[in-house]
Sequence to fold (475 residues):
Amino acid sequence: MDLNNILLMRFEVILLVVILLLIVGEIFISQAKKDAVIHLSIFLFGLHTAIGFLNLEEGRLFGGMFHTNAMIELFKNILNIGVLILLLQSGDWVKEKIMKNSRGTEFFILLFSSLLGMYFMISSGDFLMFYLGLELSTLPVAALAAYETTKRISSESGIKLILSAAMASGTALMGISFLYATSGSIYFNDIILTVGANNLTLLGFVLFIAGLAFKISLVPFHFWTADVYEGAPIAIASYLSVISKGAAVFILMILLFTVFKPLMEIWDKLLYGIAVATMFLGNLFALRQQNMKRFLAYSSIAQAGFILLGLMIGNQLGAATVMYFVLIYIFSNLAAFGVVQAISLQTGKELMGDYEGLYRTNPNLSLIMMLALFSLAGIPPVAGFFGKFFLFTAAASEGYYFLVFLAVFNVTISLYYYLLVVRAMFLRKSNNAIPYFKNKIYMRLGLLIAVIGILVLGIYSPVYEYIYELSANLQ
Fold:
């Protein structure tokens, strides 16, 4: 392997080096100075994120198993930005809750290992590389979901996630085996030439999509989401909601728009039904939630339903709207989860009722939460409005008028329950309101980046134009 090959795998190689450096740091940094691991991890990953924006040539490795281009590079950069914000928001939690149990370094190693698996999954050129990436991205998160070992609900969360992930992984693997049986190859380029609408291929396709639908929390494969989010540490719930879901959406889009494009007349009807069910179930169940992590879990399920509107189109416009929406969703959801984490770390409170009167004691956090929820709801002029507007416009351009009507109706439902939180913070009074507290530098910086992303993406149209140009690589 020469230098050019290493540069093609720049994201993977650098992240692997970061993981190895953290392992060395765990060995040589004394217990009294273990807090330095937090600063080292954030610095190294920030450097890795910055390097990711350097130009990268297009190419293939390992006989076509691994490939990269400008669009895939953009996918990875989007995930890197999300993980960097998450690390900033999680730094204080790791220091105060995890480091005292001597498990801080392992947290970062597991998190980066999962991200490494997502890199391989997105760059996969065949189903073997895809499956290895899928497993590497899932197993570390299951351990992280059970990371707060002193809490029974956290252990329960990890068990539910690993069992559900095993079932989804097995289902996807069976689907892959059926696709191999009908095409005689596991390489995407070969399958494109042979895929046809025969019964075994369709069965394999449905099983494979079911495995990916688990990671995106699409109905009816969403059953694990709320319980796992509630029991897992908030940082990991945020990771599952944003990074894991985003990576799964990216690889699903690549496969639908390329490998399974000949089956579009079939899978667009399948996605139609799943989109309607996902939007309605996510929104209706969110109405009754009081725990903020469960509330955001069902909100994320509903958002996944909106994403399917762009996937159903199957062209460059659909790809651009999906990527743009996911980028906005990352900033919006991380801002909301960041506020929840900040409050939980200081007070241990995670119920919606605890947020009553929050604006009077912590106005900055209240404004950030309101901005994030308005973006998730799609209220102008924040970025979420344009994300949904482009999705709905793209779906309407292909004649999905009734689906767009149902989506707009669901936006109205989501606006109601998002406003419940806003009402609690701004209009309700409480004799036991959350007292004023000041976040530390990492949390403030993480929230600031998320807020800037929400505002800038709403007013800076060249971002969407740039994404639209890169999405031509899918055709």
Q: What stands out?
A: The CA atoms of residues 353 and 424 lie 7 Å apart. The chain has a mean pLDDT of 87. The two ends are 30 Å apart (CA to CA).
